[in-house]
TrEMBL record, chain A:
Pfam families: BPD_transp_2. One of its GO terms (cellular component) is plasma membrane. This is Xylose transport system permease protein XylH. It comes from the Bacteria. GO terms for molecular function: transmembrane transporter activity. Its main location: membrane. It is a multi-pass membrane protein. Keywords: Cell inner membrane, Cell membrane, Membrane, Sugar transport, Transmembrane, Transmembrane helix, Transport.
From TrEMBL, chain B:
Transmembrane segments: none annotated. This is Sugar ABC transporter ATP-binding protein. Residues 9-246 form the ABC transporter domain. It comes from Actinomadura craniellae. Gene3D superfamilies: P-loop containing nucleotide triphosphate hydrolases.
Length: 429, 258
């Protein structure tokens, strides 16, 4: 009897609870709720691109004040973009690895090995550029497969595997290039990547295609979500996203289309060929991570590997594949770096290369703890890192100061990541 | 009606050993559609081993498994999933960094070409939650990390329902929950059975068991001590079955309790 009345009372309570929430499932947000939500997310530690954007603004202001003549000159802005290319490509590969909470310490020197393979094939074997580039990319895939197999099959921590390769791969580069040697890279196509510019009209066409494509994707999604009653962004936010991208892309194209030659008689203008390459890579990676089953599984393994395993996801394969992607993109980064330097030396990809790339990914918003990160983090972070590198160069900072500052920047970015993560845990996000 | 039909799952004479340790002794176990069967027993009684055998994680050494009247072989988790057996684990296999829809479809994403079909997944997830009268989540696009324990349990159970599972096994679903959340989950379990699913509920909590279970199967040291209708026993008797293997006329004969 008493059990029965208890139960009835309980059912009543349940009914009251039931009226509280899901009936009010919010599908269409207004601009106001979207802004409030964003602010709540930031306060609860989900910072997104905010640190990178604030950092970029602060750095640009700082260096403009310190070097008003040179920092914002047209030549230097173009230089900055080119400097950001290899860092961004390397960081893009690291985003995949970091999404699983793993690390690839050998990514920088792997890019060195791949660049050395390419340079040797062009210079000493006389191979055409496409054979050499393909060989470099395959080398990257082989390195990535080896790391992936050791991490996912043998289950050695990625930190240890890639630390060992960090040393080993430098040995291979040294063996290929020779002690103190330099292999010059003079192949037209490879050199063009970082040193030649697209015709002005092509730059504008690609920029417009880029903006129109983004706008089409965003608007179609918005329309579909509204039509089928799905959760989505308010139109204001979609419009703002398109505007921001359009301003950034078209503004960048405009700056790079101005004549930036030091002497007026000389004509130097146009978007460097490497820029559309990076743009394409970011678009492809965004698509893979955000819109494909593979990308979804990468996030799932990074968030909860056990849950992913029980859901029938091949965790071993996912773990292996991210290292393959990481080293493949490292190879591309090495090729662009060799193009920028016009040569391959035994220390290409060593020193600060990896630190810069990890810093770029983390500053951009990718977490070192796995499960959180996007492709465009590498782009934003790469710009921040290139700005630091470029600005310090203009200030004539000594090598020791450069190392100290770069190290501190990475520590700072990692601290923000760790603190934001604690904040997320505390606020249940 | 359901009593006359084949049980959804019937185990006959199941044995399982881990090395020299004989964990399950000739266990018989049956689960019917539309019924909640509580599986009770002390720690080490063999509940988890029995569940893992059904789920294909540690297949049984011997014995017969019938699913909807047909004899089947469950050699791995995929076999179990293909039959329509879903296990909702105690530690809730959800990825915190994904939202509710993404978690519900994890590992079985719908696609159009190479693209994820987010629209159709979101609609199905919402329909399933609505069908289960789940009204406690704000948005199906909420990250799972921001959900309470009860809501997480709800999502895990809804995931099982989404896949049209015939048999849903819940491992201690209320163990970590507060009073109101336990209430929600128990209601959900009841609705699960009422919508035609066979439900196995593993629980240490006699209140929960007596509130939602139709039948109670008690395990004692790897043997079935009793398989009774809830209405025929009292809470005290069940506790005796769990702790001593017998209670009055019920349970194992004394010689067998070893």
């Amino acid at each position: 009897m008493s059990i029965r009345t208890n139960k009835e009372a309980a059912v009543k309570v349940a009914a009251n609870l039931a009226d509280s929430g899901f009936a009010a499932d919010r599908r269409e947000q207004t601009l106001g709720t979207a802004l409030t939500d964003y602010w709540t997310r930031v306060r609860s530690g989900d910072l997104g691109s905010l640190p990178a954007i604030l950092g970029l603004v602060a750095l640009v202001t700082l260096f403009t004040v310190l070097r008003p003549e040179t920092f914002l000159s047209k030549g230097n802005i173009a230089n900055l973009f080119v400097q950001a290319l290899p860092v961004t490509i390397l960081a893009l590969g690291l985003v995949f690895v970091l999404l699983l909470g793993e690390i690839d310490l050998s990514a920088g020197v792997a890019s060195g090995v791949c660049a050395a393979v390419m340079a040797k094939l062009i210079v000493e074997a006389g191979q055409p550029w496409f054979v050499a580039v393909a060989a470099a990319l395959v080398t990257g895939l082989v390195i990535g497969t080896a790391i992936g197999a050791l991490v996912s099959l043998v289950r050695i921590p990625s930190f240890v595997v890639t630390l060992a390769l960090f040393l080993g791969l430098q040995g291979i580069t040294l063996r290929l290039i020779g002690d103190g040697g330099t292999v010059p890279v003079r192949d037209d196509v490879v050199v063009a990547l970082a040193n030649r510019n697209m015709p002005i009209w092509l730059g504008w066409v690609l920029a417009l295609v880029c903006v129109a494509g983004f706008a089409a994707v965003e608007l179609l999604r918005h329309q579909r979500q509204r039509k089928r009653g799905l959760a989505g962004r308010p139109f204001g936010v979609t419009a703002a996203r398109i505007t921001v991208l359009a301003v950034a892309v078209l503004g960048g194209t405009y700056l790079l289309s101005l004549n930036r030659a030091a002497t007026p008689s000389f004509d130097l203008r146009g978007v460097p060929w490497g820029v559309p390459l990076v743009a394409l890579l970011v678009v492809v990676c965004t698509f893979v991570l955000g819109r494909t089953v593979y990308g979804r599984h990468v996030y799932a393994v990074g968030g909860n590997a056990e849950a992913a395993r029980r859901a029938g996801i091949n965790v071993t394969w996912i773990r292996m594949s991210v290292f393959m992607i990481g080293s493949f993109l490292a190879a591309l980064s090495g090729i662009v770096l060799a193009s920028r330097l016009n040569s391959v030396t035994p220390d290409l990809g060593a020193n600060t290369t990896l630190l810069y790339a990890v810093g770029a990914a983390v500053i951009g918003g990718t977490s070192l703890f796995g499960g959180k990160g996007r492709a465009h983090d590498a782009l934003l972070g790469g710009l921040v890192i290139a700005t630091i590198d470029n600005g310090l160069g203009l200030l004539g900072a000594k090598a020791y100061a450069n190392m100290l500052i770069t190290g501190l920047v990475l520590l700072f970015a990692a601290s923000i990541d760790a603190l934001a993560r604690r904040r997320r845990a505390a606020t249940g996000r | 009606m359901a009593e006359n039909a084949h049980p959804v799952l019937r185990l006959t004479g199941v044995n399982k050993s881990f090395g020299a340790v004989h964990v399950l002794h000739d266990v018989d176990f049956a689960v019917h559609a539309g019924k909640v069967t509580a599986l009770v027993g002390d720690n080490g009684a063999g509940k988890s081993t029995l569940i893992k055998g059904i789920a294909g994680i540690h297949p049984f050494d011997s014995g017969r498994i019938e699913f909807e009247g047909r004899e089947v072989v469950v050699g791995g988790p995929r076999d179990a999933a293909a039959l329509g057996i879903e296990v909702v684990y105690q530690d809730l296999a959800l990825a915190d960094n994904l939202d509710i829809v993404q978690n519900m479809f994890l590992g079985r994403e719908r696609t159009r070409g190479v693209l994820l079909d987010e629209a159709s997944m979101e609609q199905s997830a919402r329909e399933t939650l609505t069908r289960l009268s789940v009204r406690t989540v704000k948005s199906v696009r909420q990250q799972v990390a921001s959900l309470s324990g009860g809501q997480r349990q709800t999502v895990a159970i809804a995931k099982a329902v989404l896949w049209e599972s015939k048999l849903v096994i819940l491992d201690e679903p209320t163990a970590a929950l507060g009073v109101a959340q336990t209430r929600q989950v128990l209601d959900l379990i009841r609705r699960l059975a009422d919508t035609g699913h066979a439900v196995v509920l593993i629980s240490h909590n006699m209140n929960d068991v007596f509130e939602v279970a139709d039948r109670i199967t008690a395990l004692y040291l790897g043997r079935v001590a009793a398989d009774v209708a809830r209405a025929d026993v009292t809470s005290t008797e069940v506790v005796e079955l769990i702790t001593a293997g017998r209670s009055g006329d019920l349970g194992l004969a004394t010689a067998e309790t070893l």
